[in-house]
């Protein structure tokens, strides 16, 4: 099974998008997009839902053994406990 990083790269290639345009379409910076493609950054739950709506890449593709959904910080800098405080129960 391919990772989110591999699926994202495949989607960008299939669409024929530049990194700049793909980043704009996904609502992230070019540097964050490149880090996602390298597998060194992962989108937040909200961002991965947006990516799924736009690309069809399932949210589950971003969950890795090392950086799964847990009580640690996600990659948008928001701790999962903050989701709970905001009325979302993703912790």
Summarize the structure.
With 91 residues, this protein is mainly α. 51% of the residues lie in helices and 0% in strands.
Protein model, in words:
With 91 residues, the protein is an all-alpha fold. It has one domain: 434 Repressor (Amino-terminal Domain) (Orthogonal Bundle). The protein is built from 5 helices and no strands. Helix 2 crosses helix 3. The radius of gyration is 13 Å and the shape is globular. The C terminus is likely disordered.
SSE topology sketch:
Elements: H1 4-15, H2 19-26, H3 30-38, H4 45-55, H5 80-85
Helix pairs in contact: 2-3
CATH level 4 superfamily: lambda repressor-like DNA-binding domains
In total, the number of domains comes to 1
At the fold tier of CATH, the topology name is 434 Repressor (Amino-terminal Domain)
* Share in helix: 40-55%
Mean residue pLDDT: 78
Radius of gyration: 13 Å
Structural class based on helices, strands and sheet pairing: mainly alpha
Total beta-strand segments: 0
Oligomer state equals single chain
Order of helices and strands: HHHHH
Instruction: Provide the CATH architecture.
Output: Orthogonal Bundle
Major β-sheet annotation: none
Top-tier CATH class: Mainly Alpha
Q: In one word, what is the shape?
A: globular
Number of helices: 5
How far the N terminus sits from the C terminus, by CA atoms, comes to 25 Å
Approximate strand percentage? under 5%
Low-confidence stretches: 65-74, 77-91
